Structures are given as structure tokens and as C-alpha cells.
Amino acid sequence: MPEQNIFQPDPKLSRSSYVSSLQQYNELYKESIEHPEKFWGNIAKQFHWETPADPKNFLSYNFDISKGPISIKWMEGASTNICYNLLDRNIKNGHGDKIAFYWEGNHPEDFTRFTYRKLLEEVCRFANVLKMHGVNKGDRVAIYMPMIMETPIAMLACARIGAVHSIVFAGFSSDSLAERMKDCKAKVLITSDGAWRGEKLLHLKKICDQALDKAEELGHHVETCIVVKHINRVTAPVPDLVEDFSVDMRDDRDFWWNDEMEDVEPSCYPEWTSVEDPLFMLYTSGSTGKPKGVLHTTGGYLLYASTTFKLVFDYKPGDVYWCTADIGWITGHSYVVYGPLANAATSVMFEGTPFYPDVDRYWQIIEKYKVTQFYTAPTALRSLMKFGDQPPSKHNLETLKVLGSVGEPINPEAWLWYYKVIGKEKCSIVDTFWQTETGGHVITPLPGCTPMKPGSASFPFFGVKPSLLDEGGKEIQGEGEGYLVFSQPWPGMMRTVFNDHPRFESTYFSKFPGYYCTGDGARRDSDGYLWITGRVDDMLNVSGHLMATAEVEAVLTEHPRVSEAAVVSRPHPVKGECLYCFITPNQSETFDKKMVDELKVLVRERIGPFAQPDVIQHAPGLPKTRSGKIMRRILRKVAVNDREVGDISTLAEEQIVEILFQNRPEK
Ligand code: WT7
């Protein structure tokens, strides 16, 4: 790999950023690792603890399975309420009239805003509704909702009464929703009649009806379903109106949100919960078996979501922050809801898609709200890059200071486009590496501080201690590539798998005793920068050379006529494994032999002759989940022409699988 260019942060940004130099970062980092109690204890002072923490018992943990059960406890004995800290505390500090959310609907003329005071009132009302329906502290509440204001309201209402929310992204099938509601034994389900995605109207309540029936078949009864009337509700003239949109409501089970909110008190005393009580769970797919209910608790999560938000986005009063992630994913939990509200921030929340009504919608929203921090995913950037520089150039993006990326390694091609075309070479790009399990960013540059290398997530956040291990579990010092693990806990990390602590221990702590195992590989370069190389199961070994599919993909997408690339490993009789590549050309480009030859040369040049792909196939599209993750499992099947592809129901477009088999160059 050739040395990458280094991009220095803009001096103007450095002058005002919280952490403004690597030297300052190093000092703070050292303290956070050597004295975590002191470091996080200081941060904890800004929040309200009904029962304070005992400084002598601020952190206790065991990461070594050979010494006993894995356990992680921060501030044990303290009590608080996270909703109180996000809303009441900020209102007491004078932010009641501050905008918490600018809500932007699918249709550009449909928008509204919520102040902190208004948000608290709605949350309290809904907390009372939940209580009325028998929801108690510790009960699980399933949420299957679009990006509307009722979603954070429902989450915070749960938190206010100590109930545990379990959000299922509203793109999952009824089977998946049923399975998850059964696993967490949800008492109540909250949904909406429907949702808009561009020109598409999704019938969420219908999916919920099927899921509730299926949960019943699986032996779990959900008592109550509360339904927000969203379709045909308008906040401004002429948005999308549909005739004859109706849903089935079952008398004994289904209630309209608005009816329920009418006769309840607008205040609700918060339930003081122990800081290690569960706050929420969120399912994440495992490489084997059913999804895991990742469980996060209250106190540590508050400290971590809040601190990462503030420092990684360098959020200052007056800024307007926008994260495009759906609340149904961890990014939405930590960086649409909990992190921003803990900082009394003003955020944009967007219901729609980047392509509706036109492909400049994101840029138009940034201009409209004067967004200062923008956080999105590489897959979104690549799909927008396809349309060239003209759509963003129509808009004033001068307010931007920090650009975030999350979810997968960002290929240098997309990084540079983000940096130059969107950020005008003056924004810091924060390539944030983290997981559902980590609760917040764990490896990331800091704005105005970290010199950036396109494609590198760079350095650990405060309190996070990464190591790279070889197959034998030995720590790799200096330059090298290995398993990315963490050797001590940070406050926001998951505490267990819901109802299955043994699975938590075996998934994350059994491979290398003493370490939390991310399941990702990483490389440390000669400057100490960390480069995430992709899931360990996406690593491949070609003739004794360890490499990551992501590395090869980054090279392939450098080609000016390539839009997206995905690489999988295929068994090879001589080399052990070889590379099988799927290529999606840019919109108006054709896939031809010339392109194949150029790509082979490019990979040889950039990585080495051993990395030359054996097969390069045309892929008009890639098999992606609704969240945009490429399902490499399916591509591996295509590579070996094995039509036993298994379950493809989580794909956004199932028909792409057949097209890929048809397109195999080897008949
Ligand atoms: C996996 C976690 C983190 C919230 C969204 C995804 C990959 C995530 C990066 C990044 C390289 C990344 C990893 C990780 N990943 N961010 N900046 N660079 N890889 O959460 O669904 O739990 O997925 O996403 O492979 O393990 P998730």
C-alpha cells in the first residue's frame, strides 16, 4: 500500500475546536487510559445523579473469561434518569426555548420544529400513556417507526419510566419483527400507519399486524399496539396526500397515538433507575444463528454518547447538526437522539431519501438549515457521487465544518469527493469506526486536531485501548495487521446479550481471553494510524498474503468509470484463496474487456501482483440489506456458482441475486 496523502485540519477550525492538537489529544488520552475513574468522573459532573457515584467504586470489570464471568460496571450504586438529563436538566439550564429538532419531512414542504420544552411535554404525556397501558420499569417496548418526531418521543418516554426500548428498523420484514418481539418479550408495540420513502408509501401497520400474528404463533402475546397517524397528517400545504389510506385497527389491542395523548397529564415524574439498569436493546445480526439483543445500560451510555458527540463532531452552541442515519440503527440511537440531546444540541431529523424529489435533496437540506456538522454513510456518498459535482454545486454548503462517515471503511475515492466537493477542503472528515456493541465511536479522528489520511479511522477515542493481535493472540507492536481488540472497558460498551450472557461471553471474549474482540481486522501504519480492513471473515489469504476485501475494493473504486465494487474470496487450488470481484460501473458507463484489464493493472499496481483478481464480473447492482450493507455471503455463493444462497429476505432487492448468477463470466 503506498503512503497516503495527509490532510492537515483547517487552522481556523483548530483554533476553536475542543481538542486542537495531537499533543493535547495525547495528554488527555493518556489520562483517560491510566485514570479512567478520574477522567469520566469529571465528565459525570455536568449531569444529574439522584444518588451520586462512589468515587472508590467508579469502575469494576472482568474482561478475562478464564478468571470468571465477564462483567462491566460503571458508577455502580449511583442512580439517575437519562430522560431527565436530556430534557429537564437542559431546560433548567435555560435551553427550554432552544430548538431540539428541525424535522424535515419526505416532502420538502412538510416540516416542523420542536423546542426542548415542547419535547419534554410530549415525552411526559406519552410516558403517562405507557403507564396507563401497564408498562412498568424493566418492561420491553418494541418500536417500529419511520423518522418522525414520535420516535424519539417514544424512546424518551420509555426511558422516563425505566422501560427498555427495543427498536426494530422499519425496513425489516414482519418475520424479523415477530422474532425480535418474541425474543425480548415485548409488552407493547409502537408503530405508525405508514411511512414515506421518496415516492414509495410503506404500509407499516400492515407489517405490524402480520408480525403480531406471527409472534402469537411463536408463543408470545403483545398486549397493546399504539399507532401514530402519520400518512395524510400535514404540517404544511401540499405534501403527499393519498386517498383511501386506511389501516385495520383491532378493538382489543390497537390504539391511536393521538387519542391516547388527549386526556393525559403533561408532566410525569422520572423514575430514578440504577445506572446499570438496562436503557435499551438493539438487535444486531450474528455471523451464526439468530440476531443478538445487544443490551446497553444507563449511566455509562449517557457519559459516552454525550462525550463522543461533543468532541467527535466538535459541537458548539449555535451549531446545527444533521445525522442522516435512521433511528432504527445504533447510529440513530447515539447520534440522532441521546448524544445530541445530552448536549442541548439543535439537530435536523429527516424522514426521506437523498434522491427525492431530486438527487440534491441532502445538499438542499444543508443549505436550508445552515448545517454545520453532517454525518452520513459511505454508501450514500458513493450513490450521490454518481451524479457528479453539479447537484451539490447548486447549493451553499459554506456553513459545514465537520463531515462524518460511518458504517464501513470509506474508500479514498469517496473520501476525497466528500472532502473536496462537499467540504471545500476546509472541513475535518471524521471517519468514525464503531459498532452496535460499542455504543459510540471507538476509533475516530477529532476535528481540528487529527491530520487526516483518507480511509483511516486513525486513533482511539478517550478511554478506548486498542490492540492488534495475531492468530496466536500475541500483540503486534508497531506496524502490522491483525485482529482488532480492546483491552479495557469504556463507559458506553454493551453489557450483555439480552437473556443470553453466555452468548455475550462466547461471541466477544472467548477467542482472546482478556480482550473484547471486535470481529474486525485492522492495520497500523508507520505513523500509528489505524486502518480498519473489514470484518475478519472478509479477510483473505492469497498465497500467504493476508489482505482485506476492503483494501481491494478501495483500489477498484479508484477507477474513474467504477461506481461500486465488492470483493469476496474464492477457494483456489494453488493460492489457497483468490479474489473474485463484482463491479458496478458508473451510470452511463458500460462494462467491457478494457475496463477489466485496466482494473487488473490497477490492483497489481496499488497492492501487488499477488492481489490481482482472478475474476472480475459485471454487477448491475450489489445485494444489499436495507441499511446498505453488502451481503458478501451471497456474493461468495455467486463466485462458486452455488445456488443454495439461503435466506435473502433481508435484501433490499432480491432479484439482483438471479441477475448476478446470469452475469457470471464463466458459464
Ligand atoms: C461494523 C459494525 C457503527 C454504527 C453503524 C454500524 C463496520 C463501522 C466503520 C468505519 C470501517 C466500519 C465494522 C464494524 N464499520 N464503521 N468507520 N470503518 N468499518 O454498526 O451494524 O454494528 O456494524 O461496521 O465492520 O464491526 P454495526
From TrEMBL:
Protein name (database record): Acetyl-coenzyme A synthetase
Domain (AMP-dependent synthetase/ligase): residue spans on this chain: 93-495
Catalysed reaction equations from the record: acetate + ATP + CoA = acetyl-CoA + AMP + diphosphate
Organism ancestry: Eukaryota, Metazoa, Ecdysozoa, Arthropoda, Hexapoda
Family the UniProt entry places it in: Belongs to the ATP-dependent AMP-binding enzyme family.
Key word Repressor present: no
Name of the top EC class for this enzyme: ligase
Domain Acetyl-coenzyme A synthetase N-terminal: 25-85
Ligase listed as a keyword: yes
